[in-house]
Amino acid sequence: ARAFGGAVPTEREFERWLTRDAGLSRIEARAVMRSGLKGLWSLRDAGGAITTDAEVIAAMARTARRISALI
């Protein structure tokens, strides 16, 4: 089943999906919504929740796996 049934999700629905289904933290989800995957790199650069390249890559991989499972 598709995550949003073919409809364009609202911002709130997309954030909920990123946190619940894609496994991102709320901070990570908002960074992705604001700046795409570059937002995760920004968190690392700003000393946020993600502090290493390995954590950024792990978050991206987690998200990609979950998205692939839904398609």
**From N to C, what is the helix and strand string?**
HHHH
- Poorly predicted runs are none
Q: What's the β-strand tally?
A: 0
Helix content: 55-70%
Q: What's the shape? A: globular
Number of helices: 4
The average pLDDT value, as a whole number, equals 75
The biggest beta sheet reads: none
End-to-end distance: 8 Å
- What portion of residues belong to β-strands? under 5%
Provide the gyration radius in Å.
12 Å
**Could you say which structural class the secondary elements and strand pairing correspond to?**
mainly alpha
What does this structure look like?
With 71 residues, the protein is mostly helical. Helices cover 65% and strands 0% of the residues. It contains four helices and no strands. The chain has helices at 11-20, 26-35, 38-45, 53-70. The longest helix is centred in the C-terminal third of the chain and has 18 residues, at 53-70. It is globular, with a radius of gyration of 12 Å. The mean pLDDT is 75.
